[in-house]
Structures are given as structure tokens and as C-alpha cells.
Amino acid sequence: MCKTRFKILSIVLSFVLLFGTLFVPTSAIAPGDVNYDGKINSRDSLLLRQFVAGFDRHVAKSADLNNDGKINAADVLWLRLKIAKHDISAYTEEIDASFPKGWRRGVNMGNMLEAESEGAGGYRLEDEYLKVIAEAGFDFVRVPVRFSAYIDSSGNIDETFLQRMDHVLNACIDNHLGVIFNIHHFDALMEDPQTNKELFLKMWEQLASRYQHMPDSVVFELLNEPSRNLDVDQWNALQKECIALIRKTNPTRDLIVTGTNYSNAGNLPLIELPENDKHLIVTFHYYEPFNFTHQGASWTSGTSDLSGITWNNTKEERDQIDWTFQNIKAWSEETGIPVLLGEFGAYGLVADMESRVRWTTCVRETAEKYDFAWSYWEFCSGFGFYDTQTKTFNPIYNALVPQKGEN
Ligand code: GLC
After folding, report:
1. Of 403, 313, 322, nearest to 358 (Cα)?
2. What is the CATH number of the domain that holds 149?
3. Burial 141-156 (b: 16+ CB within 10 A, else e)
4. Alpha-carbon span 6 to 13, nearest angstrom
5. Mutation test of ligand 1: which of 180, 224, 291, 298 has the most ligand atoms closer than 8 Å to its C-beta?
6. CB atoms within 10 A of CB 218
7. How far is the CA of 48 from the centre of ligand 1 (A)?
8. Is pLDDT at 96 greater than 70 in this prediction?
């Protein structure tokens, strides 16, 4: 009797196994195999990030990695950890505090729309660049914009320029790139915050209203590098006022906020933010050692005559970066606010390429180690990695997007 039962059971089992291999049911797709090609790798990660960012993408049910019935940013992090072979079980629901969009790699469209006027820095933001960037493996671009060059005395932004902005944002969306845009180089605000803060708020009122219906993949960054006379107290007050203003039209859009002293890492703990706003991301900029990254630079003080400074990837040099980033990570875990390393880069006029590649690799790897999204300064100008004439990449690109392996 027992034997017959065993026989029946083994026949049933063989059938299950046979059909199982012939018709893989959806539930059998391994968690994380988002494109159901039998592998779990960076392709799945890209697809999932695009899906979560609101792009029209088809993903398998297996994209719900944490099995909570939703496919969202938490799954992006789970997948990233899985690919990096971290122990996923160590993470809990708290992972929502990770970078919300699952964005990792970005690039600054520097010297374009933040120049005196577009083109004055040598480049216009051409749509074809966005295609190159998307195909090169980046998730998003940061677009610095000198809006203050396009306002009247009451702060009304020129309509023709806004139409240019509409085009740029739509071109990012068309190329499946996330986009952060900011108010960059508002020098008058840095010089005289009291007189100019109304203009700053007026600009955001218009921008927030105009772009309130843009998809979530469009992110607002309030101000580039608050500095000079815009001190900690004034900036904390103004930043909060600006967030409240934007929230009237954009209750859930991700906003990038920052600290003073040029978005210096050390000033992060001084930032005061509204409580209970779950859609804030904090940014810092990293250019240390400054004499290395800015040697030859004419626009920063004491750097134009510097040259021949190398970065050799010594333990001491690496530890310096790690220490700073580790502190930021601690702050981020304490506050639950995710981090974007919004700018980092080494100027190429006189610095040797080998050092620049070593430094860029180390900063990028350290950011990823602590789960910071990053955007390199910049695409094709003085710090850049792309030659728009020859349409070729220099070795900095490989430091940013490793060509071998799946990381
Ligand atoms: C800041 C400045 C930008 C400069 C960059 C590197 O973002 O606003 O103009 O090129 O840092 O120095």
C-alpha cells in the first residue's frame, strides 16, 4: 500500500518537474529577474529604476522583491543590494529612506544653461547629448540654470526662456532620463539675501506652478551652493519658506535641499528642514582636495597658478574621502533623508588624466558604498568626459561607469 502511494507520488512529482521546466509559471521567475531573461543583473536594475521613475516599462511580478504587493523604490534598493550580494535579510521596511528614485548615476550639464546666456560657456544643451548620456548608462542629469538672467525687476521669468526649459525637460523625459534642475549662480541672493529673497521665491512660485504636472522623474533643486552672505540662519529660514511655497502646487515632488558654505559636507548637520516631509533629498558637493581638483582654475581664488598636483590613491587619501562620506551617511541614517552627491569632479586644464581617473573612481565608489546617488561635474566642458566634436569619451567615463563586470 505504502509502495503504491510512493509510486503515485513520484509520478506526480516527475510530471510537475517536467511541466515546470517546460512552462515556467510567472511565480517561478526569480525575484529580481525583472526582464525575465533568467539572469539578475544591471539590466534588471535599469529597467526597474525606469519603471519606478514613471517611464512606460513592462516589468515582471518578480520586481516586487520585498513581496509587499507594491513595486517601488524599496524594490530598487533590494535589487541593488541583491546584485551587490549584500545580505538582504538584514534590511527592513526602513529601506524607504534610501534614494527614492533608485537613481545612481547622473551627470551635470555644466556650462550650458547656467552660463551668462546659453551658449556663452561654449555649449548649448543639445538633445543629442541626452541620448548619448542615456545610452552611456546614466539614470539622470542635473541641469544648472541661471534663471536670474531671465527675470524682470519683479521676478517674472521670460516666457521664451521658460519654453526653452519646457523643451529641455521634455527631451530628458523622452530620453528616459530623470532630471534635476536648479537655480544656479543667483549671485545677488548670495550678496544681499534680504533684498533678493523675494525674487528667489517669486521664481520658484512660477516654476513650481508651471511644472507641477511633470512626471515624478522631474526634480526641483532649490538653490546651488548657498554661500557668502547667505548664512546658516538666513538660508534655513528661506529654504523652509521655499519648500512650503512649492508644496502648495507640488505636494509630493522630490525636492533637493542643501546646506550653506557651497553645499559643503561639514555644513549638513546645520540644516533645518520641515518635519514630516518624506520627499526631500539632501545634496552636498565634494571637490577635496580642492588644490588638486581645481588646479589651474581661474574662477576660484588661489588656484589659477597651481599645477602638477597628483592624486595617488594612497590609503590616507582614500580614508579622507571615506571619513567625510561616512559622516554624511550617519547623518542620513539619523534623519532618514537620502543623499545625492550633486557635484564632484577634477578640472582637466593642467591636472594629469591618471590622477583624475583615480580620484573620480574613488569618490564614485565611496558614494556607491554609502548608497548616495551621484552626479559628476560635468559632461563636456572643462571637467568633462565627452568630446562633442569627435563624439568620444575620455577615460573619466570609465571611472564613472565601469565597463567590465556588473557593478
Ligand atoms: C560650482 C559652480 C560652477 C563650477 C563648479 C566647479 O557648481 O557653480 O560654476 O564650475 O562648482 O568649480
Report:
1. 313
2. 3.20.20.80
3. bbbbbbbbbbbeeebe
4. 10
5. 224
6. 22
7. 32
8. no
Are 44 and 139 within one domain?
no
Please report which confidence band the pLDDT of residue 94 belongs to, taking 50, 70 and 90 as the band edges. Answer: very low
| Centre of ligand 1 from the C-alpha of residue 134, in Å | 23
Decide if 358 is inside a domain: yes
**What is the rounded average pLDDT of the residues 69-79?**
76
Q: At what angle do helices 353-369 and 315-335 cross, to 10 degrees?
A: 30
Contact (CB, 8 A) for 118 and 152? no
Lookup: cell for 356: 583624475
User: Are 55 and 120 in a shared domain?
Assistant: no
In the predicted model, what is the mean pLDDT of residues 63-67? 82
pTM score of the predicted model: 0.79
Residue of 379, 355, 108 whose CA lies nearest to 225:
108
Is the pLDDT score of 54 beyond 80? no
Task: Place 20 in a pLDDT band, splitting at 50, 70 and 90.
Answer: very low
DSSP state of 151: B
Question: 241 C-alpha vs ligand 1 centroid, how far in Å?
Answer: 25
Q: What is the pLDDT, as a whole number, of residue 4?
A: 65
Supply the pLDDT for residue 407: 45
Q: How many domains does the chain have?
A: 2
The torsion angle over the Cα atoms of residues 182, 293, 391 and 45, rounded to 10 degrees, is -60
In a domain, 291, yes or no: yes
**Distances in whole angstroms, Cα of residue 203 to Cα of each of 114, 150, 157, 391:** 15, 10, 7, 36
406 domain-assigned = no
Instruction: Take residue 162 and report the three cell numbers written for it.
Output: 521658460
Ligand 1 lining (C-beta closer than 6 Å): 110, 224-225, 343, 377
Least confident segment among 97-111, 197-211, 350-364:
97-111
Name the residue with cell 521634455.
170
CA of 262 to the centre of ligand 1 (A): 9
pLDDT at res. 76: 74
Give per-residue pLDDT as tens, 180-193: 999 999 999 999 99
Whether residues 88 and 105 share a domain: the answer is no
Domain boundary among 64, 93, 122: 93
CB atoms < 10 A from the CB of 34, how many? 29
